[in-house]
Give the backbone structure.
Amino acid sequence: MIQTPTTWQDYALLDAGNGEKLERWGKIKTIRPDPQAIWPRVNPMAWHDPHMYYHRSKAGGGHWEKHLPTPESWSISYDSLRLIVRPTGFKHMGLFPEQAVNWQWMMGKIKAAGRPIKVLNLFAYTGGATVACLSAGASVTHIDAAKGMNAQAKENINLSGLGDTPNRILADDVMKFVQREARRGSQYDGIIMDPPVYGRGPNGEMWKLEEKLYELVVSACQILTREPLFFLINAYTAGLSPAVYGNILQLLMKQYNGRTSFGEVGLTAESGVTLPCGMYARWES
């Protein structure tokens, strides 16, 4: 079963088909490629007059074509969060709206904990999960190798009125950071990781998901408190099943009293189709 967010107001998946998706970000309509949408467009009339259309290049990458006047960036709301939308040259928009299902889950866990919660967000991108956890009352350490992503995370924190909350935004290699935290004796109640298939650290460190993920989760378990609240793994590679991530958490978190679940996240379009967008595994106390 695919988990889909139901409480977005400023974002909507309008339709998907023919290898593309039609989305609304506030008042801005965009068309982007999506390899999962192999069926025909359900509502062809909805696709007319987008503000922006992303053309993929045969040589890799692509570019945006503006059909209507569009700002370089703008913001949209989710719950009490305010998040920047900033289209990039590699088709991303600066946030992944399907992740709202995980934001809501973490916010609920933090609010119900009844104690101070420290969260570590690894491969944290522009900080959607960071802002969600801060808004629920947690302190958050946010790690991403890309300084530009961290700068946008700080913008999202401030835009959401959370600039005075306990947060650290650091550009670092996630594996090296976790290992240093273990040596320092640092501990966290919740860990989030959203690893890419391939990546590089700030000093050129190589990351390959299938080779490094288990080792990273092992290291991350060493910096959990005695009573951890949650552990979340997000993944976007089609090469592994959600059960793989669930198995990793189940094996490594068995010393704690909790449960593991796994599955897919996606978006349900206004036209009725549900678009798969990624996978998750959760451990929770």
Notes: The mean pLDDT is 95. DSSP finds six helices and 17 strands in the chain.
